[in-house]
Amino acid sequence: MRVLLVEDDHPLGEGVAEGLRLQGYVVDWVTGGREARGMLEAGGYDAVVLDLLLPPPDGWTLLREMRRRGDDTPVLVLTACDAVEARVRGLDEGADDYLVKPFDLDELCARLRAIRRRRAGQVGALLRHGEIAVDTAAHRVWRDGEPVPLTPREFEILVLLLEHRGRVLSRSRLERSLYDDADRIESNAVEVHIHHLRRKLGSGLIRTVRGVGYVIDAPA
């Protein structure tokens, strides 16, 4: 899951970025509104963690701009503005959630998982597909009731494809959610992860659409 973190407090931003990375997120961290605007317009994020009190343009402006141009990327506001009026305004402006500083990193991660589930139309943390069950909170996978160990990137690919069942995801789309821009990505990295998933979970689980990408077909 690729997250854009917009936070101008350097110690806090560094801590949040590192904490999210340890949880398996790919994080781009920026400290100002102008830089954030450019990255938001470029797109490609699964979620945005947005401070409101930023060097201009502020978070309010960025949020309004996103929603006015039809960008529905989930936004979790992370701010010291704790007044009820600010929370109401943030949600009405288009934020998907609102978390007040100081906060616990575990709660932030739980809220990001909840946003992700809602966007995928998923009620709880458990994803099921045939004989496969996935606990997205505990990062555990079972096949026919037997636990199956996956690497973090194998797990992320599996969750992405399950959340988008019936839709083909391109290799570049998967790479964006798996790797930081600073990573050296082998040209066949995604193919290797897909191969391992098929070996562990069944050769028929993930279908290759030649020249397009990969898909887990929706149940008939």
Structure description:
By secondary structure, the protein is an alpha/beta fold. It has two domains: 2-119, Response regulator (Rossmann fold, 3-Layer(aba) Sandwich), CATH 3.40.50.2300; 126-215, Winged helix-like DNA-binding domain superfamily/Winged helix DNA-binding domain (Arc Repressor Mutant, subunit A, Orthogonal Bundle), CATH 1.10.10. The chain has helices at residues 10-22, 33-42, 59-68, 84-93, 105-119, 152-163, 171-178, 189-201, and strands at residues 2-6, 26-30, 47-50, 75-79, 97-100, 126-129, 132-135, 140-143, 146-147, 207-209, 213-215. The strands form three sheets. The chain has a five-stranded parallel beta sheet with strand order 2-1-3-4-5, sandwiched between helices. Strands 6-7-8-9 form a four-stranded antiparallel beta sheet, covered by helices on one side. The protein has a two-stranded antiparallel sheet with strand order 10-11. α3 links the parallel β3 (47-50) and β4. α6 (152-163) packs across α8 (189-201). The chain is globular. The two termini are 28 Å apart.
